[in-house]
Amino acid sequence: MKGTSLIVSIVLFVAIAVLYVLHFVGGELNEQGSADENRAVINRGGLKIAYVKADSVLLNYDLSQELHDDFTKKQEAYTTEYGKKRQLFEKDAAAFQEKLKRGGFLSEQRAVQERDRLVGMEQEVLKMDQELSTKLSELQAENNKQIFDKLMEYLKELNTGNKYDYIFNASNILIGDEADNLTADVLKALNERYNEETK
Length: 199
Description:
With 199 residues, this protein is mostly helical. The chain has helices at residues 2-25, 54-60, 62-102, 108-158, 183-197, and strands at 42-44, 47-52, 166-169. A 3-stranded mixed beta sheet has the order 1-2-3. A hairpin with a 2-residue loop joins β1 and β2 (47-52). It is rod-shaped and about 85 Å long. The two termini are 47 Å apart.
């Protein structure tokens, strides 16, 4: 695991160093096409580079907001369902302890039966907790994939005709020219599309 992390760090360092060199050795704004089209197309030794702040898209994309609201409702419903089952178990377990202390069971066999029932109940509660956690994790992963797929679909359309050689996720960029930042345009286009689809 540490070896993989080291390799990733080295690759990122080399990529940043290349971008840094290209930025300062680089060139001028590509003069072809309209100014709007080339707002973020920078020619650096033949490379046309842009970036998108994916975390910003995730926070401000209308689809993302809707999926988050739906996820929160399901999470609350699961938490309520689990909480009720957990409370019932704790109430029964406390009653069992109290009855055992008072010697309220007619026989030892009856006490063992009640204890076994409570152990089974506790296992059900733990299983439910695991199942609900898994469901929520899967739902979150599906939501993230749906958002990422929409973003990639739009970026591929945007890059028709190979306007850019590379479009990076800004989370991997430490320093970058704002002229290369496509985030606002991408977010606006994604929200317009989403609002059209949901009408």
